[in-house]
Design goal:
Rossmann fold, alpha/beta, single chain, elongated, 3-stranded mixed sheet
Length: 245
């Protein structure tokens, strides 16, 4: 008696589920066949460098497509081909809209004179008239250079110094050129600590030499050497002159 009731309940539930699935399938088929054109593609983010005309061309290409049948991946790919677009996400908004969220590259530097670098340390190719620092190195080290640049930038800006060029050689040796054309040779190790030591003593060095400098070599263990502007000789600044090193 109880077994037959339990079996009847299971059969009844199965039938209800089957009916619901069939109804949903029929609704889906009818909606796909229905003429539900996309009437608007909405761009929700603001952007600075992306060409608005190119955005409109892509949007207009997919207007009038079927709301359910349109391939969102294809639209996403079309937007991602634009030079300044880093990433794109899309979603349908009932009954006739596609909402597009665009992430623009946030440029921080030029790369080997043939590309640009964004704040995530990624290389991309686009045109820019901005006055940007130059990164030089092997492409596999671009993220490392980006991270070091951000840290070095903070240290140098305390002395009103700004990076113009930062390079990492094949031998993994670092060199910086500032916007004032001061070259700083950092070597391979402890480069942040070396920069801090130099900036802590920068005013003292200028006062001691009574001149501006054009080159600094920070590869010494107990100090650094500098070359005055318009001078061919280097002067070593060591612990005997500066107790803080």
């Amino acid at each position: 008696m109880f077994n037959s009731l339990s079996s009847l309940r299971k059969i009844t539930i199965f039938i209800y589920i089957l009916i619901i699935v069939c109804c949903l399938y029929l609704i889906h088929v009818q909606l796909e066949r229905a003429d539900l054109p996309i009437k608007e593609i909405v761009i929700v983010n603001s952007y600075e460098h992306i060409d608005k005309e190119q955005i409109n061309l892509i949007a207009n290409r997919y207007l009038q497509s079927n709301y359910f049948k349109v391939d969102l991946n294809k639209i996403r790919f079309a937007f991602k081909k634009l030079p300044w677009v880093r990433d794109v996400s899309l979603r349908r908004k009932w009954p006739d809209k596609i909402v597009v969220s665009i992430e623009e590259h946030q440029v921080i530097a030029r790369w080997n004179r043939v590309g640009l670098v964004n704040k995530e340390g990624e290389i991309f190719h686009a045109a820019s008239e901005e006055n940007l620092p130059l990164f030089i190195g092997n492409e596999s080290h671009v993220k490392e250079i980006t991270l070091k640049y951000k840290e070095i930038k903070k240290i140098l800006e305390k002395e009103m110094m700004y990076v113009s060029i930062i390079s990492l050689s094949e031998r993994l040796s670092w060199e910086i050129t500032t916007t004032d054309r001061l070259k700083i040779n950092l070597g391979k190790d402890d480069i942040l600590q070396k920069i801090i030591q130099f900036t802590d003593n920068f005013k003292y060095v200028i006062s001691e030499l009574k001149s501006t400098i054009e080159y600094v070599d920070l590869r010494y263990r107990d100090g650094f050497s500098v070359r005055k502007t318009n001078s061919k000789s280097n002067k070593k600044i060591d612990k005997q002159l500066d107790k803080t090193l």
